[in-house]
């Protein structure tokens, strides 16, 4: 019996194909391990929320100070990292946490982009009353969304319920402060 000619596929002979078979054969790959992105998402949310709350409450700096220091973590850590954690939760099949982390990642991305002057999203508001009303509506929408998320997590655990209760309080206070700043009679 004559020796068979080696098979050549795109300049690879039989021996080179065996050497690279792990890359070509998906069944030889290491199995996907479910990663738990929940701690990453919670840390991204907690740190960014703490920093923004300290600034917005005037606990560490003047209330009129620029939010510039908070916008870096809001954009990168609270926004991007939390969005990635949400996408990983979706991949793991956890739709609720995927929705929560992705949505609040979007919140931090939008909040940061509203406050970064290079984007100039708020440049169209010449008077502060209209600007504060618009920001009040922004925070009101997130208050309503957070109430809906509280209803969705009622069956999870008390810690998560507590987190959303305090988050609702935070959004109510942010909404009220913007609407109060918009009304000159209440200032």
TrEMBL record:
InterPro entries: AceTr, Gpr1/Fun34/SatP-like. The chain crosses the membrane at residues 39-57, 63-84, 96-122, 134-154, 161-180. GO terms for molecular function: acetate transmembrane transporter activity. Keywords: Membrane, Transmembrane, Transmembrane helix. The keyword Acyltransferase does not apply. One of its GO terms (cellular component) is plasma membrane. It comes from the Eukaryota. It is a multi-pass membrane protein. It is found in: Membrane. Belongs to the acetate uptake transporter (AceTr) (TC 2.A.96) family. PANTHER family: ACCUMULATION OF DYADS PROTEIN 2-RELATED (PTHR31123). This is Uncharacterized protein.
């Amino acid at each position: 019996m004559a020796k068979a000619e080696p098979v050549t596929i795109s300049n690879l002979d039989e021996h080179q194909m065996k050497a690279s078979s792990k890359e070509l054969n998906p069944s030889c790959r290491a199995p996907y391990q479910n990663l738990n992105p929940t701690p990453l998402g919670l840390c991204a949310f907690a740190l960014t929320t703490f920093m923004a709350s300290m600034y917005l409450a005037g606990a560490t700096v003047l209330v009129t100070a620029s939010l510039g220091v908070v916008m870096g973590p809001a954009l990168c850590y609270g926004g991007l990292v939390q969005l990635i954690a949400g996408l990983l939760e979706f991949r793991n099949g956890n739709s609720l946490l995927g929705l929560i982390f992705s949505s609040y990642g979007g919140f931090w991305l939008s909040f940061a982009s509203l406050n970064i002057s290079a984007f100039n999203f708020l440049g169209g508001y010449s008077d502060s009353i209209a600007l504060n009303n618009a920001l009040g509506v922004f925070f009101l929408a997130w208050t309503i969304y957070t109430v809906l998320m509280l209803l969705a997590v009622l069956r999870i655990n008390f810690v998560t319920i507590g987190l959303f209760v305090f988050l609702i309080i935070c959004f109510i206070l942010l909404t009220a402060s913007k609407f109060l700043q918009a009304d000159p009679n209440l200032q």
